[in-house]
Amino acid sequence: MQTVRVKREKEFFIKQNIFYRYDILKSLAVSSNGQWQSIERQWDKIRKKLFILREKRLHPGKDYKILTDWNGLMIAALAKAGHILEEKEYIRMASRAADFIFNKMIIDRHCLYHRYRDEDANIMGFLDDYAFLIWGLLELHKATSQSTYLQKALVLNNKLMEDFWDRENGGFYFTSASAEILPIRMKEVYDGAIPSGNSVALSNLLKLARLTGDLKFFNHATKIEKAFSPLIQKNPTAYAFFLAGIDSLER
């Protein structure tokens, strides 16, 4: 009985507090003897008047910044989808995004920046920026067979190893050794809404090992496994992407 009451209340509030354009126009058309086109014209006039009035008010702040890590995820998704679905436009979009980052967000010595806005690249790149972009480049290489994407991935991975690798315990720090000095350099491996930088870096290293035949990538992948295994064994469901890499490592 309680379930039925809750369902009815839910249906009531959905109909009362969410505007559905089609339902509103339909009810107006019924009340005006079915003059649907006339109602649509009136509706458009009302919307235009409201828009003019709204333009006189102060606009809310807009977030225009471009983030390297999020674009890396997008590049990987578009390239992979384009390859599987044979949609060339997806691959072109991924390629254009990668070109933008290399033209605007990589400065001296292959230093990758985290944020771009208003012709300004700033904030030194974090682990996620490098790992996610490398992932995108490897997917682009797979989708296009162009060696340039693999070469760029290798250059960025070398920079990642140089500036982020924990030489004592294995794994990657979240911040670069050349960034601002912090009391503690964190190493994150939790896979939440998006995978962690270490999880993606593990996957990237295994792909690079297979593509190049260079065992140093495989050796670093095994070191990442050893570094985080004690933590992951306590709660494996929180590290799904990392475990996917481990599955690939063990094959």
Verbal overview:
- It is built from ten helices and three strands.
- It has 251 residues and is mainly alpha-helical.
- Strand 2 and strand 3 form a beta hairpin.
- Helix 4 packs antiparallel against helix 5.
- Helix content is 66%, strand content 5%.
- It has two domains: 2-55, no CATH class; 66-250, Glycosyltransferase (Alpha/alpha barrel).
- Strands 1-2-3 form a three-stranded antiparallel sheet.
Helix content: 55-70%
Distance between the termini: 53 Å
Order of SSEs: HHHEHHEEHHHHH
Q: Helical element count?
A: 10
Number of domains: 2
Query: Ranges with pLDDT <50 over ≥5 residues?
Result: none
Report the structural category: mainly alpha
Shape verdict: elongated
**CATH class call of the largest domain:** Mainly Alpha
Q: Could you give a quick summary of the protein structure above?
A:
This protein has about 250 residues and is mainly α.
Task: Set out the fold topology.
Blueprint: H1 2-17, H2 21-31, H3 36-55, E1 66-67, H4 68-85, H5 88-104, E2 113-117, E3 120-124, H6 127-144, H7 147-164, H8 197-212, H9 215-234, H10 240-250
Antiparallel strand pairs: 1-2, 2-3
Helix pairs in contact: 2-3, 4-5, 4-6, 5-6, 6-7, 6-8, 8-9, 8-10
